[in-house]
Amino acid sequence: MAVPKRRVSHARQGKRRSHHHLKPRQNTYCHRCGSAILPHYVCWNCGYYNIQGKEVVAVEEEEK
User: Fold this and answer.
1) Do residues 53 and 62 make contact, with C-beta atoms less than 8 angstroms apart?
2) pLDDT, tens only, 22-51
3) b/e map of 10-35 (b: 16 or more CB within 10 Å)?
4) Which of 11, 24, 29, 47 has the most CB within a 10 Å radius?
5) Is residue 33 part of a domain?
6) Is the pLDDT of residue 57 over 80?
7) What values do phi and psi take at 13, rounded to 5?
8) How many angstroms separate the CA atoms of 7 and 2, rounded?
9) Which residues does 40 contact at the CB level (< 8 Å), separation at least 6?
10) Is residue 34 part of a domain?
């Protein structure tokens, strides 16, 4: 079995793991209503899909 001959220092271990960090989520904004949405997703507020430029989900109007 391969066993390390010496202990790996904290600095060397951190350099190896430097790319394991979390990246922030990239938000885009709906062209129709302006609410924040994830890219390539249908808007939760108005049902509009930015890439296709059309309403995918019909949203019912709330009665007042």
Assistant:
1) no
2) 988 888 888 888 888 888 888 888 888 876
3) eeeeeeeeeeeeeeeeeeeebeeeee
4) 47
5) yes
6) no
7) -65, -40
8) 14
9) 51
10) yes
